Amino acid sequence: MCRLVESIKVENGQLVNIKWHNKRFNEARSEAFGVITPIDLQEVIIIPKTLGNGVYKCRVLYGKEIEVVEFQTYTIRPVKSLKLVDGGDIDYHLKYENREALAQLMAQKGDADDILIVKNGFITDTSYSNIAFFDGKQWFTPDTYLLNGTQRQRLLAEGIVQEASIKPYDLHDFTLAKPINSMLDFEETGCVKIII
Predict the structure, then answer these.
(1) Which of 86, 128, 143, 187 is paired with 92 by a 20 to 30 Å CA distance?
(2) For residue 5, which of 19, 25, 32 has the smallest C-alpha distance?
């Protein structure tokens, strides 16, 4: 079993959305490695005072136990267009450190900035985020996600987005699309164009 990763936004010296990261991290440890004793990430992650203010990514690499905690400067990667690609039998329900399967799909993006993965005839995720679609009244996120992201879980719990089964032909029913990712502020994230 390869290592797993948890990517946590650090903003102005604080771990963001940590409740949801703790939940996913401990559920993944239990499923992948049979570990039942939880770890509270907030208790073990020490944010260096040298980071100061601003936005950083905290990457936690782990197996049964935490192996590496590292901090990286975070710059938003602008994504304005997505290309539909067939994901075949891709499995990314755990956040694996090894992203080779996603990299192979990304090789098909052509002129688009990223991909929108279709699996078994349903829309799932982009290569690095969940996604939400706006129909003019409400935001919807696919119930056929590849990875149940922490920001996705929070937005669902708060009623900001709703789950729906979405097929490629349904995309015409939506006016906007937006990535959902733990490093992005959903309300401030720009929308993307889908290339069908």
Answers:
(1) 187
(2) 25
- Global pTM value: 0.93
Radius of gyration of the chain (CA): 17
What phi-psi label fits residue 32: left (phi over 0), alpha (psi between -120 and 50 degrees) or beta? Answer: alpha
Alpha-carbon span 68 to 64, nearest angstrom: 12
Task: Give, in words, the CATH class of 81-195.
Answer: alpha beta
Among the listed residues 118, 116, 5, 8, the one whose alpha carbon sits nearest the alpha carbon of residue 67: 5
Instruction: State both tokens at 131.
Output: 């996604």
* Amino acid 10: pLDDT: 97
Q: Contact 145/125 with Cβ under 8 angstroms?
A: yes
Strand ranges across the sheet with 130-134: 161-164, 139-142, 130-134, 176-180
Q: Quick one: average pLDDT of 144-163?
A: 97
Q: Among 166, 101, 102, which residue's Cα sits nearest to residue 133?
A: 166
Residue 196's pLDDT band, with cuts at 50, 70 and 90, is low
